[in-house]
Design goal:
three-stranded antiparallel beta sheet; 15 strands
Length: about 450
């Protein structure tokens, strides 16, 4: 969607990022715009993007903090350069994982039941507050704004944090909280996915006050940002139209099953009943790219490399067999590692040391897509003359059948958004998207078959 204006100059972030469908919705540009000329709005495809609402002098401040800036300065060119600035004391490094101190898998009984995974994020945030390391936490919580289900909000105590202890696959932006950060007394910790964390690091790079005010970042390992269409579709699958659902929950655990066997649920305004569906019955909602932001296809940070601690799901045996949920944990600073070690010593954490190969395996699908598959998508972007930020991966030679898989997946992602925008009906959507899903499944089988036999 092209955003133009006859009245004002077009901000660089809109011209180079939004108009090339590479905005991720972090909202940092709205905070750094010296003219307050940008505000976040939901676009026609269900994603939050900045729009122009006043005079823009195009000084470039908005683009400098954008994680998808196609022309970054050399000192912040990629995550590697940024980690040299913010994680320079880390003792270990792996090209796929970034800088780190320790790698673990585990959970906390204290917060596990109320969390989507092992509860480690809530443990870390609570510890940061109760130790006085920070005074406020920015995290995603249920929204009080009509029509918006979740948004970033500030927590100042344990009870408030419990309201933000689950994963939300719903578009959110930092804009609504960062506008208040200068008013808050004391220090702040922020929870975010990789692109959001990168935007904060970029803002800190030229703002010493922000660097001091935000001493700790909790990174969530992400499989891609979903449009609000994703939630509307899931609600419709359980029989609730998009106008009549509330309190969507994306990771309802089955303690008698495996970690992957979770459900989506929401409450219907018609009868106030909770409706649920097992996600496994809906097919692959992640590997196919359904309802995903285009920018996610050009992110090569799998493990949230710029955070103080990175947390994800342990999608690897034996942890994935535990329906209670288990986190993989990457500590990247001494402080983060000390928090984990202290939790082990006091018995609050149940933690195993994890070999780095085992950790990589736990996120293998994400690595395959974001690192190996990136080369095929970069070639497509180059053909379309879309400016992509510098990437550390994407130089691998891939087979023709793998390129075909990537091309179909990109078409499926785009089609899912266009079909839902014009339908808003799950039955109709499933019929129209099925040809893309079938084609992708067929191409993927061919790729796996040829790869398997090429190794013999």
């Amino acid at each position: 969607m092209q955003i133009k204006s006859k009245m004002y100059n077009i901000p660089k972030v809109i011209d180079l990022v939004v108009n090339n469908d590479l905005c991720i919705g972090c909202g940092m540009c709205t905070y750094k715009c010296p003219n307050n000329a940008l505000e976040m709005q939901c676009n026609e495809f269900g994603f939050l993007v900045p729009v122009l609402n006043g005079n823009c002098e195009t000084d470039g401040s908005c683009l400098a903090v954008c994680p998808f800036n196609p022309k970054p300065d050399d000192e912040v060119r990629t995550e590697n350069e940024l980690s040299d600035i913010y994680l320079k004391d880390a003792t270990l490094f792996h090209p796929k994982v970034g800088k780190y101190e320790g790698i673990y898998a585990g959970y906390t009984e204290e917060f596990r039941a109320t969390s989507s995974s092992g509860g480690i994020a809530t443990f870390i945030m609570t510890d940061l507050l109760e130790r006085g390391i920070v005074n406020h936490i920015f995290s995603v919580k249920e929204s009080k704004t009509p029509g918006i289900h979740y948004e970033y909000a500030v927590s100042n105590n344990r009870q408030e944090l419990l309201a933000s202890s689950k994963t939300r696959y719903y578009p959110v932006t930092l804009a609504n909280v960062f506008s208040k950060i200068d008013e808050l007394e004391g220090k702040v910790a922020i929870v975010g996915i990789a692109c959001f964390i990168k935007s904060i690091r970029l803002a800190q790079h030229t703002d010493q006050i922000l660097k001091e005010k935000i001493p700790f970042l909790v990174g969530i390992i992400c499989g891609g940002i979903k449009s609000r269409f994703f939630t509307e579709y899931l609600a419709d699958k359980v029989g609730v139209s998009k106008e009549f659902y509330y309190k969507p929950e994306y990771r309802i655990k089955d303690l008698n099953s495996s970690a992957i066997d979770y459900s989506f649920g929401c409450i219907s305004m018609n009868d106030n009943q909770n409706k649920t569906v097992k996600m496994q019955t809906l097919g692959d909602m992640w590997g196919t790219g359904l309802f995903k932001a285009n920018a996610c296809d050009f992110c090569d940070d799998v493990t949230n490399e710029l955070a103080d601690i990175s947390l994800g799901d342990a999608w690897v045996n034996p942890y994935d067999q535990d329906g209670g949920g288990t986190n993989v944990i990457v500590t990247r600073t001494i402080l983060a590692d000390n928090l984990i070690q202290d939790g082990i010593k006091t018995g609050r954490l149940h933690i195993d040391n994890l070999q780095i190969e085992h950790f990589i395996k736990s996120q293998q699908g994400n690595f395959n897509h974001r690192h190996i598959g990136l080369s095929a998508r970069l070639k497509q972007a180059k053909m379309k003359k879309i400016p992509i930020p510098p990437k550390r991966f994407g130089n691998e030679k891939v087979s023709l059948d793998f390129k075909i898989v990537q091309k179909i997946r990109m078409k499926l992602r785009s089609a899912s958004l266009n079909i839902w925008r014009s339908n808003n009906n799950a039955i109709s959507f499933d019929k129209k998207i099925s040809k893309y899903r079938t084609l992708l499944a067929y191409a993927t089988r061919i790729y796996h078959f040829r790869r398997k036999h090429s190794k013999k």
